[in-house]
Amino acid sequence: MKRYNRYPILALALAGLLMACHSSQEDKDGYKTKLSFGPGDETKIAEAFLTLKDSSSIYLKEGTYKFDNLSIAQVKHIRIEGAGPDKTVLDFSSQSQGGEGIRVTDVNGFSIHGMTLKDSKGDLIKINKSREVVITYLHAIWSVSDSTSGGYAIYPVMCKNVLIENCYAQGASDAGIYVGQTDSAIVRKCKAYKNVAGCEIENTSNAQVYDNDFYGNTAGFLIFDLPDLSQRGGHVKAYNNHFHDNNERNFAKAGSFGSTWGVGNAAPGSGVVILSASDIELYNNRIINNNSSAISVVSGFFIDSNAGAKMNDHYDPIPKNIRIHDNEMQVGDSFPPAVYEHHTGKILVGLEQQLNAQDPARKNARLPFITYDGITSNVLTKGNAANPDSICIRQQQPNLFVNVHALQMGTKEWRPDTDVTPFLCK
Amino acid sequence: MRKPCLLLLMFVSLLAWLNSCQQKPAGQGNTGFAFKEKLSDYGFFTGELKALVPRKGVVRYELSTPLFTDYAVKDRFVVLPEGKAAKYTTHGALDFPDSTFIIKNFAYTSPEHKKVMIETRLLFKDPAGKGWKVMNYLWNDQQTDAVKWILGKKIPITLLDDNGEKISTTYQMPNTNDCKRCHINNSVLTPIGPKARNLNFTLAGQASNQLQQWAAAGMLQGMPALKDVPQLPDWKDSTHYSVDQRARAYLDVNCAHCHTKGGDAFNTGLFLEYEQTGHDQLGIMKQPVSAGGGAGGLDYDVIPGDPVHSILVHRMNSTEPGTAMPELARTVIHKEGVALIRQWVAGMPRQ
Fold first, then answer.
1. SS3 label, residue A43
2. How many domains does one find in chain B?
3. Statement to judge: residues B176 and B282 lie in one domain
4. Closest-CA residue of chain B to A262
5. Where is the Cytochrome c domain (chain B) (predicted)?
6. What does residue A310 show for φ and ψ, rounded to 5 degrees?
7. Which tens digit of pLDDT belongs to each residue from A224-264?
8. In chain A, what residues touch B327 (CB-CB under 8 Å)?
9. Are A346 and A340 in contact (CB under 8 A)?
10. What does pTM read for this prediction?
11. A151 and chain B: CB distance < 8 Å anywhere?
12. What are the chain A neighbours of B289 within 8 Å (beta carbons)?
């Protein structure tokens, strides 16, 4: 008799357990653990980041939060969510250690959206060695745009499958949105303003960049391959973007990468710069009022005579298979003032002067829209093909193109030429 | 009969449910081992805890070249499970058996020349997951025990450096993920210090080589003849080793856990392992990739003959976040380490 009495108790306990289990079961997005915090919970939040279990989401309510830094490592299926970029603000101005505000390492399935990150000492958010990364409605901002700002605002590196959408980056002393050494990335519907580079795709393969607005930076958009890295980039498409009014001074730390690689080389007034990268298609973009050069295509030899020694499976200094077509381009009446203080900027100014001195019929026209350094694989093969690296241009504008013949620069033989014929798409 | 059957059914379904509830994705925290709350709970030491007197089976060891952490005084111990031995490996840390503990205690020397305990870091090789796990313990103000502490902490201290000079700083106890950043290689958590080559020396005042002692005690299997065991130079020993050897040993221990393929700084292309021979990889006339302002306006990691303009020296000589290297666990400049690396760069023939 006594035994039977236990049945209801057991049933109740079972029901309770089942309910407990259900309450921690997956929500509609598939997260098993859902945590929610508000301003004042900073310590709890930092602790939650450190103890995250697989399949967790963290919601940060409206308000401003102050953090030294945050990190997530070695978990799966994580979402960090705010109430919106204007509402949830993470302020890292008190950072006293480490290279970034938020550091994500080795996470398979990471998404962050709906908040603003601001004023870290190093990068704002670095996502290292992760897969299935989704960054949406994230604003990453330094209040002051100068060399005291960190390098990258939004910084996935060595990742696989990255989506950056509806984000905004401001004030980076390197690139606002930077995707490095990554396979398969999409950057779309983003804005970048007052960075040295609005967006940079570096040693990254299979990237698509579209429907973005990069403006008011030193240079709007860079596609770079650098030597000595884990992988070669390439197969990048950029289309339907608006790259405009990128005419600001280059505030990468004074002299930073002055004579060599990197964003310090980007001349003020650059719309798009392609460096050493291959298999690139640039089309249907509006490239407006970048008042030095709308599009530049340069080889690694342009900035380092020793680039040939660095060639291997992961690096080729000569850009190849570059398709540029159907872009709308406009450029202002004169160079932006900042260009005269910049080392590669001065080369562009000199180039315009040389063209106009060579050919009075130009009537002191501006530098053509597309600047190609003309350093081709003929350098390596000792060949003399007119377009050995398959540069293909299909654009209708007058004053379209200049081949710098950069290897002759500084000699009496130097004659940059504006004949685009060898480079017209077949 | 009906009711006991029902009971059985309920019991079975309870089990089934419990089982289904436990089917979480594999990840941390799902294996059997859980770290204890207090350092004293493990019973590693006898007597007053802060004296760190090891009980039987807890073996103190030292490294020929250790990692610099704000002039911290470090005590290192390894605890192998009863009757088990580590296997010798030429590269990387020794292959320790499951259930091994590695204990590293951090303290500083106060201006009163007292040893003040700060934190104790544990590595445990969990038999359930066959992987290493990390945990930190923070010493209390009374210096009687240390408690589990995952958050990291900024601790203002005044310490005496190796020359007895006073330095005030805010010591940064790392959080759990900070620990992982240095210990992860190719997504696998691994010990850094106890490599054969860094254990291969004779401690002052001892009769025989540390590794030989381990082998003799049955703690180490498969060790070749001592002459065939690689040896990492003692970075301070200018009598037996060249500046190049000492500098490379220093960089190996202080930098190469991140600056190696698969390490946290893999993306930089700067690789500083002792075995590294590639000039570019060692930073010689190598341009940085993602240093940003951290490069201090300099162009090359290492310019032979020119330490003043070498980024490597610049970053070691800084405590600014975003510039300072290593990024973690260092808030003061290691004057002697910087001096050695300066000397190394200055001595390279100019190109």
1. helix
2. 2
3. no
4. B289
5. 159-246
6. -95, 0
7. 999 888 999 999 999 999 999 999 999 887 544 444 557 88
8. 97-99
9. yes
10. 0.86
11. yes
12. 180, 202, 226, 228-229, 261-262
Q: Is residue B10 a part of any domain in this protein?
A: no
pLDDT tens, B199-224? 999 998 898 999 999 999 999 999 99
Specify whether B160 is located in the same domain as B265. no
Q: Output the pLDDT for position A138.
A: 98
Q: Which of A53, A96, A105 sits opposite B181 (nearest CB)?
A: A105
Q: What is the mean pLDDT of chain A?
A: 91
Residues spanned by the domain of B44: 30-210
CA distance readout (Å), B41 to A358, A395, B284: 84, 75, 49
Check if A15 contacts B (Cβ < 8 Å): no
| Domain co-membership, B198 together with B259 | no
Residue B86: Cβ-neighbour burial (10 angstroms; 0-12, 13-18, 19+):
buried
B218 domain-assigned? no
Task: Clarify whether residues B185 and B311 are in a common domain.
Answer: no
Kindly report the number of other CB atoms within 10 A of residue A112's CB atom: 25
Task: Report whether pLDDT(A390) > 50.
Answer: yes
Report how far residue A244's alpha carbon sits from residue B198's, in angstroms, rounded to the nearest whole number: 56
How confident is the model at residue B20, as a pLDDT?
A: 43
Is the model more confident about A193 or about B286? Answer: A193
User: Tell me, what amino acid is at A183?
Assistant: D
State whether residue A57 sits within 8 Å of chain B by CB.
no
User: Are B187 and B254 members of one domain?
Assistant: no
As to burial, measured by CB atoms within 10 angstroms (0-12 exposed, 13-18 middle, 19+ buried), residue B60 is middle
Contact of B268 with B290, CB cutoff 8 Å? yes
Length of chain B, please?
A: 351
Of the listed ranges A96-110, A170-184, A398-412, the least confidently predicted one is A96-110
Are the Cβ atoms of B267 and A51 closer than 8 angstroms? no
Q: Which two tokens stand for residue A84?
A: 């919106």
Q: Find chain A residues with C-beta within 8 A of B294's C-beta.
A: 99, 122, 151
Give pairs for B106-110: CB < 8 Å, separation 24+. B106/B69, B106/B72, B106/B73, B106/B74, B107/B72, B107/B73, B107/B74, B107/B75, B108/B70, B108/B71, B108/B72, B108/B73, B108/B157, B108/B159, B108/B160, B108/B171, B109/B71, B109/B73, B109/B159, B109/B160, B110/B158, B110/B159, B110/B160
| Category of B40 on φ-ψ map: left (φ > 0), alpha (ψ -120 to 50) or beta | alpha
In-domain check, residue B1 = no
Q: Are residues B205 and B305 in the same domain?
A: no
Pick the residue from chain B with its C-alpha nearest to A47.
B151
Q: Taking the domains of chain A in order of start, what are their residue ranges?
A: 11-423
| Residue after which a domain boundary falls, among B210, B242, B271 | B210
Q: Do residue B272 and residue B166 come from a single domain?
A: no
Residues of chain A with pLDDT > 90, as a percent, come to 79
| pLDDT tens profile A130-187 | 999 999 999 999 998 887 888 899 999 999 999 999 999 999 999 999 999 999 999 9
Q: In 3-state terms, chain B is what percent helix, strand and coil (to 5)?
A: 25, 25, 50
Give A302-308 contacts, CB < 8 A, sequence gap 24+: A302/A275, A302/A373, A302/A375, A302/A406, A303/A259, A303/A260, A303/A261, A303/A265, A303/A275, A304/A260, A304/A261, A304/B287, A306/B285, A307/A227, A307/A276, A308/A379, A308/A380
Domain formed by A11-423, architecture: 3 Solenoid (2.160)
Residues 166-185 of A with CB under 8 A from B: 173-174, 178, 180-181
CA distance A265 to A252: 9
| Assigned token pair, A232 | 């070669």
| ipTM rounded to 2 decimals | 0.80
Please indicate whether, in this complex, the C-beta atoms of A96 and B170 are within 8 angstroms of each other.
Answer: yes
The confidence score (pLDDT) of residue A391 equals 97
CA end-to-end span of chain B:
94
Other beta carbons less than 10 A from residue B76's beta carbon: 17
Strands A56-60 and A76-82: parallel
